[in-house]
Amino acid sequence: MNEPKLYSKHNSLQTTDNIHVIENFLGFIDWTKGDNQTAIDLGCGEGYTTANILLPKLPPSLTRLVGCDISEKMIRFAKKARRNSRLDFRQLDLMDGETCRRISGQFDHVFSFYCLHWIADQRKAFDNIRQLLKPGGDLLMSFLGTNPIYDVYESMSRNIQWASYFRKEMVSPYHNCKNAKQKVTKLLQEAGFQDLRCVVEDRQHVFTSLKHMEKSIIAVDPILPKLSPEERVQYIKDFTKEVRNIYSCNVKWFESGSTESTPVDYKLIIVYARKPSTSTTY
Fold this sequence. Notes:
This protein is 38% helix and 23% strand.
């Protein structure tokens, strides 16, 4: 996911879910920490959710919100397009433990929407998130559990032409997990978090057309930037064929660019947790 303009046009699923999470779960966050509170939004992408959905819902006591993403292009776009006196954007790799230690304990709150499922080592991610929080700080995160797109990725990984490009972080660590709630809760407890609340929701998003669904998938595909223009053409052809197979789409219907809506069922994991107020070594 390294094309901000493309992603900003084709992220209706993510935006819909982010609105749902913020409207229904933001109330868990503890705002009774006085004035000049700080927060960080991990995996902010091109900044739309950070600036247009999250920030307007935050109280005046939150004076600084930092949107972070591993992609330099996303952050560059966000800085130009999403300007606000309470808002800043910085490039950050959450899996870089040294960087997380340098900014350890700087934030009262951590947010993250549609990011954590891209990380294979979930325990390390939770450890680093804990580093970022002040004692007593809390987090609100949402990330994918299961989604048919992961079946597409797994199928493509068996294609000899594309197999070398695939990495395990392209599939959510919870996609084939029988009890994602239990697994996430255990990992957060091991990382030292308290007051855990974990919800796994059955969700459905309806794309306006098959073509819309295809563009939304391509907008977050991490393989395309690595390919030559000629390879991209073949990859998209093979990829859309797998989408058609996995999503049980009619061939003629897909190729005609039908405008009939396309529902997709998936599971979304939503988590609240708090770092202990007293220092503990893990």
